[in-house]
Hints:
Blueprint: E1 4-7, H1 17-32, H2 50-60, H3 65-72, H4 78-95, H5 98-108, H6 115-125, H7 136-141, H8 150-163, H9 175-189, H10 194-198, H11 220-232, E2 236-240, H12 245-254, E3 266-267, H13 269-278, H14 291-298, H15 304-309, E4 320-324, H16 327-336, E5 339-343, H17 353-358, E6 363-365
Amino acid sequence: MIKMMLFDVDGVLLSEERYFDASALTVWELLFSPHYLGLSGEEFNPAPSEEDIRRLRSMIFADDQVLDFMKNRGINANWDMVYLSFAHQLIRLMEILVDDRRTDIEQWFSQEITRESLQRLASWLKVKDFEVDYGSFIEDVKSSRAEKQELLLYMNDLTEQKLGVKTEVFGRNSQLWELCQETFQEWYLGDDLVPEDIGRPTFQPGKKGFLQDEIPIVDPKEMAQVFATLREKGIILGIGTGRPSIETLVPLKAMGLLDYFDPNRIITATDVLQAENEHPSAAPLAKPQPFCYIKGWLGRNVENQACLDFALPLMDGNQLLIVGDSVADHMAAKSMGCRFAATLTGLTGVQARPKFEELEADYILNDMREVTSIV
Length: 375
């Protein structure tokens, strides 16, 4: 008997579209803004038009094929998607320099990649022509078996394959990852909310943010009815999301949905980052690692160390249902030994059905409203 349901947010309750837009704009900024690499070919603007946003996302993620590839390899966090896309382009950029600057490049890859080191790379690139091939990410990575956060580490292997340079600079615990994460937050939150979230003003001001443009998957009134029905049946409702707290709580509250969830069972990327900071040797803890769902199952009041030490699979796994739209959610549920309901409202919509059938998801739902049929 199901006693608790933990819901992912993006692709289940709220549309992922604006998150993917912000991801594309982050990669674009890192490549073309004069504050970073300043490549030629695109004029950077911190307030692009909607038409430009559509064009840039289509270009940078190869009509979403790159996003779909990453999600099928278990990458769920947009921060990781940005990091992988940009790290891959850094490696390709170095290919055109390595014959002339091998010693410089070996030194560059021996240290953390920072805003300052990106500026140094930019000075080397001024005398070179480079055409960005975004779709080449799939071609360069598909032969590997790396999945989940192993893909981040695979960038080190790719550097050696393409450049003949050994490095360990790529990975979750890196300054470049933090730079990608903070730059993404600038785009999603905008100038007004960034100081509250990351403790500093936007490095590149002029961004209005996307938080006020959230799109619900289904009518919030219909979602509220679903949650009310589940609560009447005595089911505890919680959240396990890759969104930070502010990006989770603000839109759900505005839509009148937040009060249906047990506050002790709402776990966000903010909680995951805190756990990673407390226990860096355990990082990464983002999905498809099950940490956010374990903490949701046990409760926010349980220490992070206890969540990390908690024995899996769950002894009473049939009492927990995870509702998600991604392979990463399925991986987390499988490692916990609990039930999983896949919603066909993520990036690829109904086209995801064969994948979830192949993975033998316990339930496949057209959208979250059908979760009531399970109980």
